[in-house]
């Protein structure tokens, strides 16, 4: 699933090619991805220009010059692209915005779980979808306020898009590793110092991922993500087992927390 770093990369791509270009046509190749009916979308988009792009969590927004927004959610496999001629359209293009300069902007989605919607504003969409603040905007004070009173384990709370928008499964594992916090810590047991560490880790992980355009193999060697490959049939200590970046002789543990595959260092992250 495209996570916050991928969607921020998509937003920057769209920002470079679509701003202030009149939209001359709204081409629907597969209506399955439409969250607003086709006629309403076409009437709301054609003849307009995109004045700005925004993002909240995993949602990308094209702000139109009449104040409305085209909201893009990428589901499991969504992406964006650009082309000029029909024969160059990316495979699995479901919708294309035709621009006045001849460029076409493609909404690509092999599995068709993504959605395109028209909303009155970014704020209206955020309220309707019950999205919390974007993860890049959260502070230690906000985390303490939102989580500090909860007698719930930490990882599912961080994955809750109503609390913080944009933290997916691998990101939360990485954030907790960088902050040296166990995913099963009870939220209200965190100290002020630990909330500060959590906030710093969120910024570190997201900014690093965005900087590398979500190409995970380019992440620093100090990141847990390089140890997420796992083979349960491997002999402990073999090359198929992955070790903690901080403690080369400590095996990373794999378990399930809140129904999600979870990776922790038993030495760095103690319950």
From TrEMBL:
It catalyses: Hydrolysis of DNA containing ring-opened 7-methylguanine residues, releasing 2,6-diamino-4-hydroxy-5-(N-methyl)formamidopyrimidine; 2'-deoxyribonucleotide-(2'-deoxyribose 5'-phosphate)-2'-deoxyribonucleotide-DNA = a 3'-end 2'-deoxyribonucleotide-(2,3-dehydro-2,3-deoxyribose 5'-phosphate)-DNA + a 5'-end 5'-phospho-2'-deoxyribonucleoside-DNA + H(+). It holds the Pfam family Fapy_DNA_glyco. Gene3D superfamilies: 1.10.8.50, MutM-like, N-terminal. Keywords: DNA damage, DNA repair, DNA-binding, Glycosidase, Hydrolase, Lyase, Multifunctional enzyme. GO terms for molecular function: 8-oxo-7,8-dihydroguanine DNA N-glycosylase activity; class I DNA-(apurinic or apyrimidinic site) endonuclease activity; damaged DNA binding; zinc ion binding. It comes from the Bacteria. GO terms for biological process: base-excision repair. InterPro entries: FPG_cat, FPG_Glyclase, FPG_N, H2TH_FPG, Ribosomal_uS13-like_H2TH. Its EC number is 3.2.2.23. Residues 2-114 form the Formamidopyrimidine-DNA glycosylase catalytic domain. Monomer. Belongs to the FPG family. NCBIfam families: fpg. PANTHER family: FORMAMIDOPYRIMIDINE-DNA GLYCOSYLASE. This is DNA-formamidopyrimidine glycosylase.
